[in-house]
């Protein structure tokens, strides 16, 4: 044994270093220690450890440890001395653990004894608590029984109180029902919403008890009051619509006043005011914008949050009768009547007549309404206030368009008459104030004829700002150079010249009548079309017809006839280009020349070359 011990002492150093035990559990002696924990995870397993990754039954710290395999391996690999040393170390460790356990037991003995006493006392206290809980349960049962009796008494009292309250409420309802007609009558005039709420609350009860005569009388009286209130509310609604209509009318008249002021405002030299297209665009846009704003205000009555807006009888009557017919259609018709009134209505004494430019502008406005605006307004109204399928009849759009076109036609006709009368007045004065018997031989075109051409040119520019050019009849190649004869234009002047001598005077009256037989009849006051050449043709016809009638009432001398010849040729040179058909101008001027020749005491015409020279120089 001693030898073994000695041998183990000598071989401990070499055997411990290579044994699995020394490598696995020994921490002394300064040998190599395997990395573990974070370091091992950081550096990763070595090659030897990778080879040992399979289950190892000899790893005393591994999950697959097998004592038999381990002991077999130790006995076969470790020397006896190392085994004996390990046995001695394990004995020392066991004894140290036994000593530590005894020390721990001695140190905590008093605590164990105290804990045992405490547990014993707690068991006694728990038994006392159980007894007290039993007493408390018995008391709670008694209290529950008392509470049940008290609850039953309270329920009985509550039931009787509810019955009493029901009787009192019924009495109050009956009293309120009796007072319903008086309240409705009192609130209908000042607080209609409160009257409606009162009737709504009482209606179901009255209907339920209407088999009783007294309740039936109350119900009938209430219904009569509410029916009267409904009629008054409908009348008031037609009035927030009538007020909007009056507001639109006032706005239109204000805009019209602004247009008249702009037309009449003096213009500084070299500075032009707004043209007719700008004034028309501003007027039309302002009126249409105001109408849209009014429709937006009225549309608040049909909003989704308004309770009565979804009712069929309200939407049918309000949307069609009040808004479409009472507001939109009524305004369009009023606008057409107002515009037409400038042409139809007699001017008051001392009141200024409407300027011609205003007549022209209103005619264009009504024509635009007929072409597009009325259709747009009605479509917008039907979209915002859709009519019911079975609702009242509506005014068709073509009927309104026809009214607008009639107003435009009347205004344009009146414009032609006003402008024609203005030019005709100048011609009338120029004829009536001149001595046609004692006048001298003509050397120039009279200034009034130049003024007529200037005014016609200005009218052409004015009308061209608002109306299209129109269609002209094809002109002859010599329209501006055609000879103006005091005889019939359908015959060559040279044909009658040889037979014309003072001793054999020509019957110019006969020639005039023959000319009328073969010439086309000219309708002076026929309706004009909506274009520039038609308007100018109407004005020229009125002017020349006036000149013709004035010449027929005068007696002329030779030079007076020649002056008419010069003036007529000058007008022919410039007026034919404004007319839709040059034959209209030529025909009227021929009649003027024939009338002058018929009323002349010495009908000797001027040579045509001299007439052309005077007109070109003028």
Structural class: mainly alpha
Work out the strand percent: under 5%
Largest sheet: none
Low-confidence stretches: 1-36, 479-484, 487-506
Roughly what percent helix? Answer: over 70%
Question: What can you see in these coordinates?
Answer:
The chain has helices spanning 2-18, 20-24, 37-43, 47-51, 67-77, 80-107, 109-188, 192-208, 213-239, 240-264, 276-298, 312-344, 356-384, 397-432, 447-464, 493-496, 508-518, 532-552, 558-575, 582-598, 608-617. The protein is mainly α and 618 residues long. Among the domains are: 65-167; 238-265 and 274-417; 434-468 and 529-617. Helix 15 (447-464) runs antiparallel to helix 18. The longest helix is centred in the first third of the chain and has 80 residues, at 109-188. Mean pLDDT is 76; it is low at 1-36, 479-484 and 487-506.
């Amino acid at each position: 044994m001693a030898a073994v011990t000695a041998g183990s002492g000598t071989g401990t150093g070499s055997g411990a270093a290579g044994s699995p035990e020394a490598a696995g559990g020994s921490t002394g002696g300064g040998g190599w220690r395997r990395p573990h924990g974070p370091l091992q995870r950081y550096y990763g397993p070595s090659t030897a450890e990778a080879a040992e990754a399979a289950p190892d039954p000899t790893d005393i710290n591994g999950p697959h440890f097998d004592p038999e395999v381990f002991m077999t391996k130790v006995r076969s690999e470790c020397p006896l001395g190392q085994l004996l040393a390990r046995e001695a170390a394990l004995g020392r460790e066991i004894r140290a653990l036994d000593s530590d356990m005894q020390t721990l037991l001695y140190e905590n003995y008093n605590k164990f004894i105290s804990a045992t006493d405490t547990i014993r006392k707690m068991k006694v206290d728990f038994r006392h608590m159980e007894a007290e809980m039993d007493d408390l349960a018995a008391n709670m049962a008694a209290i529950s029984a008392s509470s049940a009796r008290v609850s039953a008494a309270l329920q009985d009292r509550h039931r009787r109180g509810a019955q009493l309250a029901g009787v009192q409420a019924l009495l109050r309802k009956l009293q309120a029902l009796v007072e319903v007609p008086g309240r409705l009558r009192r609130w209908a005039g000042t607080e209609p919403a409160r009257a409606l709420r009162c009737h709504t609350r009482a209606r179901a009860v009255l209907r339920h008890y209407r088999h009783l005569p007294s309740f039936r009388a109350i119900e009938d009286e209430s219904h009569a009051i509410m029916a009267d209130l409904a009629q008054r509310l409908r009348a008031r609604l037609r009035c927030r619509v009538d007020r909007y209509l009056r507001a639109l009318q006032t706005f239109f008249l204000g805009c019209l006043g602004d247009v008249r002021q702009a037309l009449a405002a003096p213009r500084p030299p070299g500075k032009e005011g707004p043209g007719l297209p700008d004034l028309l665009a501003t007027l039309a846009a302002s009126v249409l914008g105001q109408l849209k704003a009014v429709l937006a205000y009225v549309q608040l009555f049909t909003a989704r949050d308004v309770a009565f807006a979804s009712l069929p009888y309200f939407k049918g009557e309000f949307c069609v009768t009040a808004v479409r017919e009472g507001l939109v259609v009524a305004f369009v018709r009023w606008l057409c009547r107002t515009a037409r009134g400038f042409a139809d209505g007699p001017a008051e004494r001392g009141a200024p007549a409407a300027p011609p430019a205003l007549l022209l502008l209103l005619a264009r406005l009504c024509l635009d309404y007929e072409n597009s605006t009325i259709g747009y307004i009605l479509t917008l109204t039907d979209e915002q206030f859709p009519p019911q399928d079975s609702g009242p009849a509506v005014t068709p759009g073509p009927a309104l368009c026809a009214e607008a076109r009639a107003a435009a036609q009347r205004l344009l006709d009146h414009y032609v008459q006003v402008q024609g009368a203005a030019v005709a007045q100048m011609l009338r004065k120029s004829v009536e104030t001149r001595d046609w018997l004692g006048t001298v031989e003509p050397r120039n075109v009279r200034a009034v004829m130049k003024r007529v051409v200037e005014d016609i040119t200005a009218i052409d520019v004015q009308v061209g700002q608002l109306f299209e050019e129109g269609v002209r009849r094809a002109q002859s190649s010599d329209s501006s150079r055609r000879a103006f004869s005091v005889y019939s234009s359908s015959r060559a002047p040279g044909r009658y010249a040889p037979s014309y001598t003072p001793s054999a005077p020509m019957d110019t009256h006969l020639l005039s009548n023959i000319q009328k037989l073969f010439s086309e009849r000219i309708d002076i006051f026929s309706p004009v079309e909506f274009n520039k050449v038609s308007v100018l043709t109407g004005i020229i016809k009125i002017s020349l017809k006036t000149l013709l009638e004035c010449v027929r009432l005068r007696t002329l001398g030779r030079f007076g006839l020649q002056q008419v010849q010069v003036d007529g040729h000058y007008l022919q040179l410039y007026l034919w280009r404004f007319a839709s058909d040059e034959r209209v101008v030529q025909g009227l001027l021929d009649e003027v020349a024939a009338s002058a020749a018929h009323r002349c005491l010495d009908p000797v015409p001027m040579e045509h070359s001299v007439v052309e020279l005077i007109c070109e120089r003028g």
